[in-house]
Amino acid sequence: MSCRCDRALDRAVQLAQEWEAELIAAYVIDPAETRQFRFDRTPASWRRLPSPVDRMKWRLKRDLGTAADTIRILVEEGEPAEVLLSMAAREGCDLIVTGIARDETLGRMFLGNTVNRLVRGSPAPVLVVHDRAVRHYRDIVVGTDFSEASLQALLLTAQFFPAAALTLFHGYDVPFSGYLDEQDFKRDLGAMEKELGTKFLADDRVDSRLRDRTDVVIEHGSPERLLSDYVEDQHVDLTVIGSHGRGALFDALIGSTAKNLIETLEGDLLIVHYNPKE
């Protein structure tokens, strides 16, 4: 219920209206962070003590107006990430939308513990919202390593956003590339881009409409830096990453370097979990 969640809430409302989906506002009371009064806890005679549910309804009504009337509210107590994952599983949620923490000293975004655990533990996609919901997601880039997880991320993105322009983006490092002939390197890179992109989009699950609206971009260099630069340069609204829990791409983006990516990435980030056993 803090201001850092406002953008995620606004985006969730916009998506729920766009998809005609049910929106659940989940609020978890963390006992570890609840204020404990050491002295007189008797309320003033004029103060009415609302229940957590009533208080949340009042806050949503104040912030969203009539849009709050269509939101179902769940309030539970416990460790936030654990309870939120349990709520999402119990309610059969198709998407988790969350804001991101802010370091007030440094004035920068960072991946908080709750969001980190949501990303790692949720079988449902997790949308991490940075930006204000000023428009629909129109330009979307899907980070790919041409794996099954990346393909599932592309297919889900196409399903969620059928009118958006899509770009498959692959960044990679070539050892000792400085010693390679520049012209040969560019020629080989172009050939590889065409071959990999064609093969990836030739999968039977990719229909002709999706193929026609998907571009492929392959660049040499640090994947995190290239992706961040591309998103900013092309004014991308949403970046999508497919994860299979422990793969190299997931570890690179959600592991030790994840904080750099999420702190510096322009726009919002959707993480799509892929479990080959499902």
UniProtKB/TrEMBL annotation:
Residues 5-130, 137-273 form the UspA domain. Pfam families: Usp. Belongs to the universal stress protein A family. PANTHER family: STRESS RESPONSE PROTEIN NHAX, UNIVERSAL STRESS PROTEIN UP12. Gene3D superfamilies: HUPs. SUPFAM superfamilies: Adenine nucleotide alpha hydrolases-like. CDD domains: USP-like (cd00293). This is UspA domain-containing protein. It comes from the Bacteria. InterPro entries: Rossmann-like_a/b/a_fold, Universal_stress_UspA, UspA.
